[in-house]
């Protein structure tokens, strides 16, 4: 269904490394509400470019969870595993325009340098064998305007580094795939978690080197555990519960500082979301990360089961 009347295009781009949890719901909901509040389109892309990190069946479950939470997307889902030709073409273009080079430096060397690469292989004209491909940065980007946070300056070493766009093990790098796909899908605004602030300057540098227009960015606060770590599939954040989606949607809206439909307990999921679209206001979103609400920690489990698991 596309009732879009504006040129705004937003997206949610989960990696299928596990089910959706409260943290990913924040990113899905925030990007959805922002696009819909502007009568824009909202797309879903499954970022399955890293097979070793994939969990079998997670992609399908993510899509089912989005439907269950009433987050309907426009058009077809784009799967990064189907986009290898496009990534290859983008890499070829960079190679032809001398905007990339092969690098065989071992990880240990970069570690010795303090973590950032020094451009050692820039002028060596190494062959492709057993090498990573790096972007030859022409015009590094040192910061960007975030729609929630204002100007965000990047670490200058990070900003200037000739980062990897194709890995030595043959995998396409996240920064390459995300930029090629967001451009391909006509995405105009990227609303995602604050954990992705760091790579943003690199992504903007890539847009510029391709000569593509750069989307707007808005980085949402993260849901964190009591130990201060972000909720993630790696630290076993519980999957969103099946069944009634409204209670956790309300928690997610609260997390994003948004007003809640009064009497939502008696309202439909559609009405709850519609109200949220109408009321969506960026200015209400907190910038600080915040603790995951209790209701969203382990919705399936009762107290004693939770205690057993955390032991
Ligand atoms: N696939 C990335 C993740 O799940 C998100 C990419 C993005 O939003 O730019 O963390
Ligand atoms: Zn090198």
UniProtKB/TrEMBL annotation:
Cofactor (UniProt): Zn(2+)
Keywords, ordered alphabetically: Aminoacyl-tRNA synthetase, ATP-binding, Ligase, Metal-binding, Nucleotide-binding, Protein biosynthesis, Zinc
UniProt: ATP binding residues: 233
Residues annotated to bind L-glutamate: 11-15, 47, 174, 192
GO terms, molecular function: ligase activity
Domain Glutamyl/glutaminyl-tRNA synthetase class Ib catalytic: 10-237
Residues reported to bind Zn(2+): 103, 105, 117, 121
Motif window: 'HIGH' region: 14-24
Domain of life of the source: Bacteria
Cofactor note: Binds 1 zinc ion per subunit.
Record-listed E.C. numbers: 6.1.1.-
Stored SUPFAM superfamilies: Nucleotidylyl transferase
Ranges spanned by the short sequence motif 'KMSKS' region, renumbered to the chain: 230-234
HAMAP family reported in the protein's UniProt record: Glu_Q_tRNA_synth
Known role: Catalyzes the tRNA-independent activation of glutamate in presence of ATP and the subsequent transfer of glutamate onto a tRNA(Asp). Glutamate is transferred on the 2-amino-5-(4,5-dihydroxy-2-cyclopenten-1-yl) moiety of the queuosine in the wobble position of the QUC anticodon.
UniProt family annotation: Belongs to the class-I aminoacyl-tRNA synthetase family. GluQ subfamily.
Record protein name field: Glutamyl-Q tRNA(Asp) synthetase
Organism: Candidatus Pantoea formicae
Upper lineage: Bacteria, Pseudomonadati, Pseudomonadota, Gammaproteobacteria, Enterobacterales
Gene assigned in the entry: gluQRS
């Amino acid at each position: 269904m596309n009732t879009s009347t504006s040129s705004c295009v937003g997206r949610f781009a989960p990696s299928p490394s596990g089910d959706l949890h409260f943290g990913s719901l924040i990113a899905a909901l925030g990007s959805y509400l922002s696009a819909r509040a502007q009568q824009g389109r909202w797309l879903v892309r499954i970022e399955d470019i890293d097979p070793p990190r994939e969990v079998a069946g997670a992609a399908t479950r993510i899509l089912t969870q989005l439907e269950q939470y009433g987050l309907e997307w426009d058009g077809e889902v784009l799967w990064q595993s189907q986009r290898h030709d496009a990534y290859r073409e983008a890499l070829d273009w960079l190679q032809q325009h001398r905007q990339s080079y092969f690098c065989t430096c071992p990880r240990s060397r970069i570690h010795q340098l303090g973590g950032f690469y020094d451009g050692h292989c820039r002028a060596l004209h190494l062959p492709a064998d057993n090498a990573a491909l790096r972007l030859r940065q022409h015009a590094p980007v040192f910061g960007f305007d975030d729609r929630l946070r204002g100007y965000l300056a990047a670490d200058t070493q990070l900003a200037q580094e000739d980062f990897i766009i194709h890995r030595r093990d043959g995998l396409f790098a996240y920064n390459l795939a995300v930029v090629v796909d967001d451009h391909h899908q006509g995405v105009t605004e990227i609303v995602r978690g604050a954990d992705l602030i760091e790579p943003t300057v690199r992504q903007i540098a890539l847009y510029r080197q391709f000569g593509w227009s750069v989307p707007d960015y808005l980085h949402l606060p993260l849901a964190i555990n009591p130990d201060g770590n972000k909720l993630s599939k790696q630290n076993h954040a519980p999957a969103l519960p099946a069944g009634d989606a409204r209670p956790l949607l309300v928690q997610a809206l609260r997390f994003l500082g948004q007003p809640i439909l009064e009497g939502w307990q008696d309202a439909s999921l559609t009405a709850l979301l519609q109200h949220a679209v109408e009321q969506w206001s960026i200015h209400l979103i907190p910038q600080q990360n915040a603790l995951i609400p209790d209701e969203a920690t382990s919705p399936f489990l009762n107290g004693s089961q939770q205690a057993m698991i955390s032991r």
